[in-house]
Amino acid sequence: MNINPYIIEFLQVAVVIGLAPAFVGWIRMLKCWFQGRTTAGLFQPYRDLRKLFSKEIVLAHNASWIFRFTPYLLFGTAVLAGAIIPILSIDLPLAATADVIVLIALFAIARFFLALAGMDIGTAFGGMGSSREMMIASLAEPAMLMAIFTVSLANKSTSLAEIVQVINSGQMMLRPSLAFAFIAFILITLAETGRIPVDNPATHLELTMIHEAMILEYSGRHLALVEWASMMKLYLFVSLAIAVFTPWGIAVKGSLAGLPAAIGFMIAKLGIAGLIIVLIETGLAKMRIFRVPDFLGVAFLMATLGMLSFFILD
Amino acid sequence: MNFDPINIALSSVLILLGTALIAPLFRKNQKFMITFSFILAAIASLLAVAAGVVTVEGALVEKMVLPIGLPDLPFHLRLDALAGFFLTVVGLLSLFVSIFSIGYVKGFLGHRSVTSLVIFYCLFIAGMLSVVLADDALCFLVSWEIMAGASYFLVIFENEKADNRKAALLYLVVAHIGAIAILLAFGILAGIASGGSFSGYTFDAMRQANIPPHWATAAFALSFFGFSAKAGVIPLHAWLPEAHPAAPSNVSALMSGVMLKTAIYGIVRITFDIIHVFPWWWGAIVLTLGLISTVMGVLYALMQHDLKRLLAYHSVENIGIILIGIGLSMIFISFKLPLLAALGLLAGLYHTMNHAIFKGLLFMGAGAVLHATGERNMEEMGGLIHKMPWTAAMFLVGCLSISALPPFNGFVSEWLTFQAFLLSPSLPNNLMKLLIPLGAAILALSGALAAACFVKAFGVTFLGHWRGHHKPHHLHEVDWTMRSGMLLAGLTCLGLGVLPTMFINWIDNIAQQLVGSTLSLSATQYGWMWLTPISYERASYSGFIVFIGILVVVAATYLLLHVKPGAIRRSAIWDCGFEKLTNRMQYNATSFAQPIRRIFGFLFSIRERVEQVPHAGHKAFPKKLHYYLSVRDRIWKWLYKPVIEASFWISRQAGRLQQGHIQTYLIYSFITILVLLLFLR
């Protein structure tokens, strides 16, 4: 029995919006356990969001429309990306809207506006966050592209649905090129989603902030949207990695029977991904900002090695 | 006179020339002259667009011989799909800029006479249009010189500033060195094509001539050098960031937006059309120089704090991106892969159109800011979004387009270029399989750096508080003509980004005529909404759905959150309890670029110096800090300085011949005659 792909599409967007805070909650919970602290539970991020939505907004006198528009745009691009990445099923009506390169550009447009919002108020922190964020993004981009390039070499496509289909149908198991690309992708994900060792999502120490510095002036529902969008971004990057490198278990042609299994697989894989992130975060300290180019250089090197090994070995 | 596209195009040129002739008659009434001439220029541009659109649409090839020129060497004109495309590019931006100019040029009234600006503006556009129409070396070079000469006079329009005069001189020198190279290239081709008669100077004769490979290489090398000098390809870019900011902003828009494109036109015309059979390494050279220009252009741009200079350096970057597409196409075609060659070529041409529109828009925006504040230095700006909301919004559209962000137009062409890169593994050459993908990484790097640069440009100019010491009182939004010029360009940016399939369908005939393959069969087979360059399985993009999708989700979220009215309280910014925040404490252009300056600093020669003024002689209590920073182009020191010094040295040595005694000069003549007699008996 098949169900309408539009229903799956709708379901998937709902899952991305709904489960993103739980994923962040899971990471925080694991982190607490690793550091021997008691946890606030899986649902604390939901409570945080609810609190923020009910608070009033305090805006600086000179905040322009860009500052007020940015939270909605961040949320909008995240939702759109959530409709494009094959998370539950390959057969998504909107999947053809964007290939991997467009998807990265969707995150780039969100980042562009967030950086502008950081500069809108005219505080030193906002500008500092924007400047650093754009620097890291520029260095992450070539590494990201090389990783995509390697993956697309193996699949002869940059279309996500096609990549997932090729890998899922088992035409290619464990290629060294993909292993290199996978390592590169993990490093880039850490940089792009602002995790340790590049940025610390928990810090409010002035000189170490990057993402937090840009959103320092936000409050109320604006802040809630920004936070929610950044949770979704983490969720989507991890989902992207899962889709590209380990898509096994995803529902193939909109079959009703495959859907619960797909959700089960997704939750299991996200659980493991959270564990990996927490292992990295507890194992490493945050780097100095000017060490980040080295870190991303390694990512670039890994991706390039992946490409070379494709030409040499495959 | 019938309504053939070529007649319409010719009448457009004639209207512009006529306007340049008539305009001085009204010099007593400057205000009327401005309105009158720029409206005529806009009409002429519209005619050029119409002619170009029809030509490309119908894949027409029309020819015409004009009874002017030298005796027995008449001017040949030809309008094919490639010429039609560039006619459209030039015409479209000229249309927007002419509308913008009506308001902008009025800003000079009361300060100076604008008669020369109006005359040379019309001549400049006429020159660019006829470069594209020319079908023989003579007509091409005459038009080329009209274009170069007119733009020289536009660059020194504000000639009381020494910097402007210096920039214009540099521009003139480089333009002419380039023109000489192009002349020599045509000389080689015509010499082989004519075979004893004088007919070889037409492009038709050159196309049919059987050019030996080494002469073809020489012609390509010379013409590529000449056109690169015009296009500002690194290392021949040094004039560009000097000359473009010096010109009035409407002229900067045209120079950056379309004049550089005539050089791209020349490269495509000579390689794909006239020589048409070439080895792969020509493409590799074009690709390599394109990549270097792209990444160096954007890095130089990041170091600038003069808004117009920053934009000028971005022209270097974007010319690089165009050359990447064209270079890839040249490589593909030399390995007989016409479909991929069509993809590369169309990516390059698409970016040509896009860059014309968004760079025109950005320069118009910079012009509007200059008009309102009298300031080009970003460090002295800030918070303009409140006083100039229209300009800010349009400038933002330009920033998003040039930073290659969907759903705007710059993204589509960069995405197509990436797709061309991703198809390079189908080349039969192993070395290239390995090296070309690294080019894609460089393009990705420069795309992201461009985004950083435009966050800086927009953020520092329009956001935050006013950074300067003295805030001008007369800050105002610009008038409706300037706004509508920018608005039209902004809408075109969005249209080209959201409906790429229509544009690809339209320019496809160029690929058909030049590389013998079309893209539209595969690229638009899933309807107007989906762009699928090679196949649906390979990659797809829908700018329309991205645009509508973002719009719908943003609107829905907004409405959901505003069901019950939420309170917004305005208050002063949070100052960490410091209480002495000043506007000088904001991030500015220099500080924004600091991380990138530090990482890529080895590419520049950077001098940084901090001076302390101690309080009462104690170093521990600084009273004032002075920070000096100079970032210079290394190429200037490595390439231009030696050449300049060598040419001065040669001149000095040659100068020794000049004694001032008539007797000595007579001896020179006598010896010359003797030598000539000896050799030419």
Description:
The complex is a heterodimer of chains A (314) and B (681). Chain A is globular. Chain A has a domain at 5-138 and 205-286. In chain A, helix 1 runs parallel beside helix 10, helix 4 packs antiparallel against helix 5 and helix 7 runs antiparallel to helix 9. With 314 residues, chain A is mainly α. Chain A has helices spanning 5-34, 44-54, 65-84, 100-120, 124-155, 160-168, 176-192, 211-214, 220-245, 258-283, 292-313; one strand spanning 57-60. Chain A starts with a helix and ends with a helix. Chain A has 11 helices and 1 strand. By secondary structure, chain B is mainly α. Chain B has a domain at 279-562 and 579-599. In chain B, 68% of the residues lie in helices and 7% in strands. Chain B has 25 helices and 5 strands. A two-stranded antiparallel sheet of chain B has the order 1-2. In chain B, strands 4-5 form a two-stranded antiparallel ribbon. Chain B is globular. The termini of chain B are far apart. The model of chain B has no long low-confidence stretch (mean pLDDT 90). Chains A and B meet through strand 1, helix 3, helix 4, helix 5 and helix 9 of A and helix 16, helix 17, helix 21, strand 3 and helix 23 of B.
Characteristics of this structure?
A: 314 residues; mainly alpha; 11 helices; globular; B: 681 residues; two-stranded antiparallel sheet
Form type of chain B: globular
Largest sheet of chain B: 2 strands, antiparallel
How many E-type strands of chain A? 1
Query: How much of the polypeptide of chain A forms β-strand, as a percent range?
Result: under 5%
Radius of gyration of chain B: 27 Å
Q: Helicity of chain A, in percent?
A: 55-70%
Beta strand % of chain B: 5-15%
- N- and C-termini, Cα separation of chain A: 39 Å
Structural class of chain B: mainly alpha
Overall 3D geometry of chain A? globular
Judged by helices, strands and strand pairing, the structural class of chain A is mainly alpha
Radius of gyration of chain A: 19 Å
Greatest interface: A-B, 82 and 84 residues
- Mean pLDDT of chain A equals 89
Number of helices of chain B: 25
